[in-house]
Amino acid sequence: xxxxxxxxxxxxxxxxxxxxxxxxxxxxxxxxxxxxxxxxxxxxxxxxxxxxxxxxxxxxxxxxxxxxxxxxxxxxxxxxxxxxxxxxxxxxxxxxxxxxxxxxxxxxxxxxxxxxxxxxxxxxxxxxxxxxxxxxxxxxxxxxxxxxxxxxxxxxxxxxxxxxxxxxxxxxxxxxxxxxxxxxxxxxxxxxxxxxxxxxxxxxxxxxxxxxxxxxxxxxxxxxxxxxxxxxxxxxxxxxxxxxxx
Length: 246
Ligand SMILES: [Fe+2]
Ligand SMILES: [Fe+2]
What we know:
By secondary structure, the protein is mainly α. The protein is built from 13 helices and no strands.
């Protein structure tokens, strides 16, 4: 598709194991392309979406990911006991994630919303939309209930491999069309850039390492978890706010 807009450089790790190659090609790349073709991203890139809708979109994401550092720490605590290197990596990832909710609240404030009210909502007064309830329940299912590797597939790959694709055009538009400053775009720089790309690629390497390709039940369940999470963002998230846009 011809476009005058700058394009994101391809960042995804290319796995060596055939089932992971198929996962990237048939699941992750499929959903990345679907997201990039979505009319909501086109409207944001053109500067046509209201700041109110943009604030609402980011507010619901903040409500979903407020506890993201805890989720990653939960994966570290559920990691196979003697894989010290993996445990260290997950704990470092969790530590890295600890500042992200604050940065996301700053974006919401810059767009005219109240990010701090969500960040400090100890009384559960914030009313998230149906998408956010669904998304948070699924992420918590991954973190606390699914088998460890399947939950990681759903989060590290399903979220972190696709978020840079969805948020890269949003980042460009927030800068050029909506006037957000570099400081206000800290969360976006992290999640469309090198940090989140690395998290997603570490997730793919983890699947290569831990899933026995001959164990078709686990292969299929991991693939299903990635697919569910990708769909939740590339289709359900974008559709939800497209239908409610102003
Ligand atoms: Fe993050
Ligand atoms: Fe991340």
